[in-house]
Amino acid sequence: MNYLCDVIVLTWNQLGATKKFIESFKLNTIFPSRLIIIDNASTDGTKDYLSSLKDTENCKIQIIFNKENKGFVGGMNQGIEASNAPYVCLANNDLIFTKGWLEEIISVFKKYDNIGVLNPNSNNLGTRAASGNSLEGFAKDLRNKYEGIFVEMPFCIGFCMVIKREIIDKIGGFSEEFAPLFFEDSDYSMKVKREGFLIGMAKGSYVWHKEHASVDKLGRKKEELFTKSKRIFLKKWGSILRIAWVVDSCQELLDNLENGIRLARGGNYIWFFVNNFFEQKSAIFKKNNLVEHSGVKFIEFRNVFDLSWKILKKKKRYDIIMGKDKFIMRIFSKMGYKILDRLDETEVDKIKMASNFCGL
Q1: pTM
Q2: Region 285-309: what's the mean pLDDT?
Q3: How far is the C-alpha of 149 from the C-alpha of 307, rounded, in Å?
Q4: Less CB within 10 Å around the terminal CB: N or C of the chain?
Q5: Which residues of 41-62 are buried (b: 16+ CB within 10 A; e: fewer)?
């Protein structure tokens, strides 16, 4: 059998979650796939359960039992090394799949040749079913509404990340410097974009994720590992900047939208503050024949007082404020904000690196 996708999943105890994962995967994965399970030295009966699993018509199962816990990075790299399918999915074992999830992801890959990595839509990305709506019903509605839709993102998240074989051939697996976990997916996203590929989400594919189920078991060590990996990421790529870009009209927004997307592809988040703005977000991207980018957002303001309030009330302070209005920029400069009056990507890159030493 020719497998379209190798799905790599790590297990480390959590037998109940693993059973639900495998049951939903077999039920809802249409394309011929191989499930490569890496067990990181489980002790709760997971090994016996995995040994009892049988292949099905559309799913071959391959199991690798580790004698020690190799962590997320080490385990996933084992699976990547064992894979050879055109697509490779790196999946957490606390996922619930819905019908057609992989089919939709593959269709988006085929629609856009320059995509390298895709997440499915998910509660992990802020998309949740309304109270009273079943998971399958919600997923079906999303598929009908967003079939074939691709949304760019600044970073893909490793909870369920599908990678094109061409990417793996170019850059391999996760960087071992982020072992055992944290920021390995963000680092991978940056490397994929550096190769000239896009990353993002197949909006019509839905996978539910029980967030933090695995990492919470790390206890106090979690914060220590997170801080270590974050320090490595920032040293390598610079800070993730929050940029407020003030424009006076919808036309000025359209003129600068591609520049905003370019900044977002550099691992930043851009908020365009637009004077008297009433457009729908999706319509703005369509007007410029651009793919929607989740790292670029639009906020309307009516006057300088409204603008000041909306910028100041943000819990996480903006690192840069950009705009041509000298009066407005002078106000924020006096408040201690870093000001740019025009797009200067060299200056932005300098700020990204310098901010690592300023606590931003």
Answers
A1: 0.92
A2: 94
A3: 32
A4: N
A5: ebeeebbebbeeeeeeeebbbe
